[in-house]
Amino acid sequence: MKSNTARRATAAAVLTAAVGLSPLVAAAVPAQQTAAAGAATGATAAQSDLRAGAARVDITPAPNPEYPALGEYEHERLNVRAIVFENQGVRAALIGADLSGIDEAVWADAVQRIAAELQTPVENIVISSTHSHSAYPAGPSDPQAPRYGTEILADKALEAVRAARAELEPAQVGYASGSADLNVNRDALDPETGRWTQAANLDAPADKEVAVLTFTRVDGSPIATYANYAMHPVNGYLSGAVSGDFPTATSRHVEQAFGDDVVAVFTQGASGDVNPKWLRTGTNVIASRSGAPVTGYEEVREDVEAPVRNGEVPAGPADPAVLRQLFDYVQAAGIVLGEEVIRVMSHTEPLAVAPTIWSGQDTATCPGRTRLDDAREGVAGEYEDGPDVDLRLGVLGIGDVALTTANAEIYTRIGLRVKEESPLTKTMFVTLANGRAASGYVPDDESFSHQTFQVLGSRLKPGCAEDAVVEGLAGLVGEQALR
Known about the structure:
The protein has 483 residues and is of the alpha+beta class.
C-alpha cells in the first residue's frame, strides 16, 4: 500500500510536470505555495487554455400502450450525456448513458467513431452506463431480446459528442467529494436459514463517497458535472415501467437546479455488492404485478421477486398508485443525492485553467472458471477450469485528477483500495465503463466465500482479480501521470 508521503510526492511531481495544476494540489504542497498558486490561477482565468462543452440527447424507448407511463417524473425519460473538453490541442470526452449496460461490441463501435470525430486516442474517451435495471422498454422483460440501447447507443453518443463539441468555451475544472448514506452492502446471511442471500447488511462495507468533477465557465457558472456514487439502481427492477432510477433523478435534479444550463453525468462506483438501503417501494410494485399482498411493511425482497423473475406467476402492469410511491421514492433519492452533488460543486476550489490531459489503458488477465450448476444462492457452486478472463483497466487524467475505469461490476473493498492506493489523492473509480468484461461480477478476495448469486456467477477464480485491478490501476496512474 502506498503511503501518504509517497502519494504526496507523486502529486507534487505531477504538479511540476503539468502547467496549470498548482491550484489543484492543496493537499500535496505547503499552504503558502497553494495560496500563491491559487492567486495566479484567479488572475489568468479569463485567458483559460481549457475549453469544455456538454450536451444531452434523449434515448427514451417508445411508449407501450399496455404499460402506460405515469408521465409525471423526470426519471421516466432516458438520456445519453457527453462532456467534451480540450487543452493545448488534446481532446477528451466523458459520456454517460441512462442504460442498464453497454455491451463490448457496442462500446467498440461507439468509441472508434467518437475517437475519429474528435481526432483523439480511444484512451481519452470514457463511456459508461448508469446501470439502471429499469432502463428498458415498458412491459414484460424479454431475456432473449438485445439489451436496450444496443442499436442506438453509438449513434446517440456520437450525436451528443458533436453537440457538446459545438458548445466548447473557455473553462475551469475542479474536483471534490462529499458523502451520502443511501446505500448498503447486499451480501448477507439469512437470519433464519444461515445461508447467503441478497439483503441489507449494515455491518459490511459500502462506499459512501460522492465524488464530483466540475467544469465551470470563467465566471464560475457551471458547464457540466461528472458525479460518481456506488449504488445499484434496482429500485425499478421488474416494475414493467421505464425509469432511469435514482441516477437519472439525480442528474435531472442537478440540471434543473441550474435552469437546464448544465449537463450532469452520473457514473457508478464500486457497487457490485451494494444496493439502495431501502427497497420497500420497489418490492411492493413487483407484488402488485403478481397479485402478492402489498403491505406497509418491508417484505423479504427475494420472496416477492423470485416468482416474477423466474416466470412462475403471471405479472401484469403495476398498480399505478403503488408505482407512484416507488417513483416518489426514486425522485426523493435523486433529490438527496443531487443536493449533495450541488453542495460539493458549490465548494469546489480552487479550479484549474490549464490542466494537462493524459490517459492510458491496460488489460488485467486472471484465471477463469466455468460453472456447472445453476443454483441461485445459498449453496456452494460447482466449477471446472475455464478460459482466462480479461479486465480492461483505464485512466483518464485531468491535471492531478485521475478518473480510473474498469469494464465490470466491482466489489466495494476493491473500489476502496483503488482510491486508497492510487498515487493521486484525487482519484475517482468509474465502473461499468469502456466495454463489458466476460467476468461477471468481480468480488474481492474475502467475498469469494459468499454464496451469493454475484459470487456464484462470477467467471473469475478466487485470488487474482482484487490485486490485479488495484495494482493495475495504481500502476497506470503512476506511469501515465509522470510521463
